[in-house]
Design a protein that fits this description.
The protein is of the alpha/beta class and 560 residues long. Helices cover 26% and strands 23% of the residues. The chain is built from 14 helices and 27 strands. The strands form seven sheets. Strands 12-25-26-27-23-24-13 form a seven-stranded mixed sheet, covered by helices on one side. The two termini are 13 Å apart.
Length: 560
């Protein structure tokens, strides 16, 4: 991994591209791309691939393309297209005007298939999908030629034209490359190039009823757009020979290069599209943007910033092999970002009223408090103070345990940015015995910033003014799953693996009055509680909802 506090040395991918530039391999600018299929929402793993391609293009003053791999009409939808564009722009990796759709190249891809047929490099096959798999062989046994492999060029052209014109039902025929059924690489054993799908496409309607496979369309799309380096994750390495075969057989000059980087997985999160769909469809979570999900929409709603995700990707660096990364590293990067940029305010999550009996009746004052002790540029704010405040219920103990340095009967503490107070009386509910109020006195000589040095106290409590406090709902999030990446098998229930304490909702919280103007996605440090974000879905003018992004404790830093 790179040094999170310094610049990383040149990685192997940068070296490869730099050498291509120095040797004049391409007579055009460097160009990379991110090719998502619009059948789901992007997640944190997608962010690694997006940044890898975008950052490489920027480093070499080239272009970064977003191209939708929309060649399967059964799963794709404009909902996902819009979401993907929005998410990539939010990440700071905008492709600008370079947003493309693979379906727009349908005619060129079809013509490329016809060219291969004319060269005797592709044929129409009538085997069923199950038979194609059986004929393909295994990792230790070669495949068997299809009985349709010997069809003539004219016959293949006629049949392929019939496929295009809708003369055959789905699954009746496919177009296959004619390569080598004995190849040790199964991907080269006459792979399927086109299949029949009678379904409405979200962009092209019913213009087409045959659709290219990704391994065939991908290199052609790259070539059409002038991509120089097709950077993808490691699972596509065995597909690279097919990528190169397609471009070579089509005679593409200055053909793009496919190169692979290691796949990054995070501990304790679900990134499988299949699993994510099950969680959403089964109402186990609050949609694709649930703050417990690792989708970019979920992370954004939770409160993660684009800067923290970019920092996370740079910290991992360009890995060669599949890598498992602890989720706490992402949380660490978020803390590093917010530590200097988020204002620190006081929020009381379980309020207990404190009446200051000797404070002048009807009087009040404004106390100047720093917005962020580590970043003076964030300035200060003025917090109202009067004869009644709220503190955390856990900050008072009637019978204190050893080492408890907060408020106790007869004990003295400082209220943050205000005065020393001493507790003299505990008021309880007669029926339940619950403490409802504390009566205290304050020492006017001990005002923060006055230079008072007469005595010291061991505890400082955060508080909010009783009259001006703003009510809010606060949601405390924890990991979604107990100890699994998902159900162990298809018979297991999500209810068995979901952490029942993955979200705790606190409905009677009180915050400083400055949050009244807070907007969705505004972020704050709640003193002693962690970093919080205004929920961008549930908050409105009538109700403020805050999500805890991360606690203050940094487990990644401690483990490191």
């Amino acid at each position: 991994m790179s040094d999170i506090n310094g610049a990383a040395p040149e990685n192997y991918m940068e070296k490869l591209i730099r050498e291509d530039v120095e040797h004049g391999v391409y007579g055009r600018e460097i160009c990379t791309r991110f090719p998502p299929e619009p059948n789901g929402y992007l997640h944190i793993g997608s962010a690694f691939a997006i940044h890898t391609n975008c950052d490489m293009a920027r480093k070499f003053n080239g272009r970064f393309h977003l191209r939708f791999d929309d060649t399967n009409p059964l799963k794709e939808d404009m909902e996902y297209v819009r979401a993907i564009i929005e998410d990539i722009n939010w990440l700071g990796c905008s492709p600008g005007e370079h947003v493309y759709y693979g379906s727009d190249y349908s005619g060129q891809i079809y013509n490329s298939a016809v060219s291969l047929i004319r060269k005797g490099k592709a044929y129409v096959c009538d085997l069923s999908p199950e038979e194609v798999t059986a004929y393909r062989g295994t990792l230790t046994e070669p495949g068997t030629d299809s009985p349709y492999r010997g069809r003539t060029v004219d016959e293949n052209l006629r049949l392929f034209s019939g496929m295009k014109n809708g003369e055959y039902p789905a699954g009746a025929k496919v177009l296959r490359a004619k390569i080598d059924m004995g190849s040790p690489n199964i991907n080269l054993r006459d792979p399927v190039l086109y299949r029949i799908i009678h379904a409405e496409h979200y962009r092209t309607g019913d213009t087409w009823c045959i659709y290219p496979m990704y391994d065939f369309a991908h290199p052609i799309q790259d070539a059409i757009e002038g991509v120089t380096h097709s950077l993808c994750s490691l699972e596509f390495k065995d597909h690279r020979p097919l990528y190169e075969w397609v471009l070579n057989e089509l005679g593409v000059p200055e053909a793009p290069k496919q190169r692979e980087f290691g796949r990054v997985n995070l501990t304790g999160v679900v990134t499988s599209k299949r699993y994510l769909r099950q969680l959403v469809a089964g109402n186990y979570v609050d949609g694709w943007d649930d703050p417990r999900l690792p989708t970019l929409r979920g992370l954004r709603r939770r409160g993660f910033t684009p800067e923290s995700i970019g920092r996370f990707v740079r910290e991992i660096g360009m890995v060669r092999n599949q890598t498992m990364v602890d989720f706490s590293l992402l949380e660490h990067c978020l803390r590093q970002d917010l530590k200097a940029n988020a204002p620190s305010i006081m929020a009381v999550l379980d309020p207990l009223k404190v009446v200051i009996t000797n404070y002048p009746e009807g009087a009040s004052e404004l106390l100047e408090i720093d917005n962020n002790s580590e970043n003076k540029e964030l300035g200060t704010r003025r917090v109202p103070f009067a004869g009644a405040v709220y503190i955390e219920r856990e900050d008072f103990m009637e019978e204190p345990s050893p080492g408890f340095h907060r408020l106790t009967p007869g004990g003295e503490v400082r209220l943050k940015g205000a005065y020393f107070i001493t507790c003299h009386e505990v008021i309880k509910d007669e029926a339940t015995g619950e403490i409802t109020e504390l009566h205290c006195t304050y020492d006017p000589e001990t005002k923060s910033g006055s230079g008072f040095t007469g005595r010291k106290v061991k505890g400082t409590l955060h508080w909010v003014p009783a009259a001006e406090a703003v009510a809010a709902e606060v949601r405390l999030y924890d990991k979604l799953l107990k100890d699994h990446e998902g159900p162990a098998d298809d018979t297991a229930s999500w209810g068995e693996v979901i952490n029942p304490e993955s979200v705790t909702i606190l409905e009677k919280c009180l915050l400083e009055p400055c949050v009244q103007a807070a907007k969705p996605e505004d972020k704050f440090q709640f003193m002693r509680h962690g970093y919080f974000c205004v929920d961008n879905k549930l908050s409105n003018e009538q109700k403020l909802v805050f999500n805890r992004i991360v606690p203050l404790k940094d487990s990644w830093k401690a483990n490191k």
